[in-house]
Design goal:
This protein is 46% helix and 6% strand. The protein has 374 residues and is mainly alpha-helical.
């Protein structure tokens, strides 16, 4: 997999991964949504100040506002004018972004980004490890990888919750025996669409659903053991798309007759496989933009121009006359016109999954060594 563009504040991960990843999401939203960046920057600098307050052993309470933190540290003489002004800049423009309906400009988010740099540099130099060097300031580059704004909002919400829990944990006296804290994972990756948007459970098992699949169409043919089950559920307006699935699928079979708990279990296991396959496909699309692929279960074929021009005839692909007749009726004449998801072809009359698999193998043979298993 190719490396992805780094983020500026990666160097503070050793101090706090929560702070570093929150800074990353702020950086990614500067050009995507200045309002979001300005609004959530307040939480970032507030978390820094609360850590300073705890380091200096000043009176701390969890519900302190950003202004409370600034005023306390200023009164105690810990802030020089440059730092105080930078803090107030982030606070005031953030308040405006949270309430004002006007359109906020890139220049405003960049000014706030500069103020954050002044604050972080002060924090690291005064309270960070002696050996840590703060890089020179640089404007954030525009990123080609597009994140949906709703996904960034979700990641910010997770990270801010983690920061709050971390600070509250630090403010409580340590117990004699440390216990492992199990909470939501820190979203480390920056691939668009991979933030966990929800979880689906069955008995004691759990599946994380990534953002890019939140409203995905659940094509019944992708689920070998559950195909008929999903078709029946779809007729009852259930389980057609991911967002229709309940958080706990135990009892899903009760929406249709003549199905039982075993069908729920089979579907859950196949849903796990489906999500993992879709993740790999998503990464492939991000890493190789503009390319066409055919997918069949856990494999794909790169569709070159030469392959796409091959006619769909029994001369080229022996053994599928019924399929090709029906494709011709639907005005599909060449390989390039086939659906990206080849299992869809199983919808045709007298065409089973075995026929589709045979066609895939023939296409793979035509393409030769350009096919990559996933």
């Amino acid at each position: 997999m190719k490396s992805h563009q780094p983020y500026f504040y990666k160097f503070i991960e050793s101090i706090s991964k929560e702070l570093a990843y929150l800074a990353r999401e702020l950086e990614f939203s500067i050009y995507l949504s200045p309002r979001t960046m300005l609004t959530h920057s307040r939480t970032f600098v507030e978390a820094i100040l609360k850590q300073v307050i705890q380091e200096e052993r000043l009176d701390f309470y969890p519900n302190m506002t950003l202004k409370d933190c600034i005023d306390l540290l200023d009164e105690k003489g810990y802030l020089i004018p440059e730092i105080r002004d930078a803090l107030h800049h982030v606070r005031l423009i953030g308040n405006k972004a949270a309430h004002d309906v006007r359109r906020f400009r890139y220049s405003e988010s960049l000014l706030s980004w500069e103020a954050i740099y002044i604050i972080v540099k002060w924090y690291v130099e005064v309270y960070g490890p002696v050996e840590m060097v703060v890089p020179e300031y640089q404007d954030p580059a525009y990123r080609n990888e597009t994140h949906d704004m709703a996904e960034i909002q979700e990641k910010l919400k997770i990270l801010e919750k983690l920061l709050t829990e971390t600070l509250q944990g630090k403010s409580e006296p340590a117990e004699e025996e440390e216990t492992e804290t199990i909470g939501p994972p820190i979203p480390e990756h920056d691939l668009p669409g991979f933030t966990t948007i929800r979880k689906i459970t069955h008995q004691d098992k759990e599946i994380e659903v990534p953002y890019f699949l939140r409203d995905a169409f659940l094509l019944p043919q992708r689920f070998d053991k559950s195909e008929r089950f999903l078709i029946k559920l779809g007729a009852e307006q259930q389980a057609r798309i991911m967002s229709e699935l309940p958080n706990n699928i135990e009892g899903l079979h009760k929406h249709v007759k003549r199905y039982n708990e075993r069908n729920d279990e089979n579907f859950f296991e196949e849903l796990l496989v489906y999500i993992e396959e879709e993740k790999v496909r998503r990464k492939l699309a991000i890493e190789r933009p503009g390319e066409l692929f055919f997918f069949y279960k856990a494999a794909h074929i790169v569709v070159t121009e030469e392959l796409s021009k091959i006619p769909l005839t029994t001369a080229e692909f022996p053994g599928s006359p019924s399929l090709f007749r029906q494709l011709t009726d639907d005005q599909i004449f060449t390989v390039g016109q086939l659906p990206r998801e080849l299992v869809i072809l199983a919808k045709y009359e007298n065409v089973g999954i075995g026929t589709v698999e045979k066609l895939f193998e023939q296409l793979k043979e035509k393409q030769g060594k350009t096919m990559v298993s996933i």
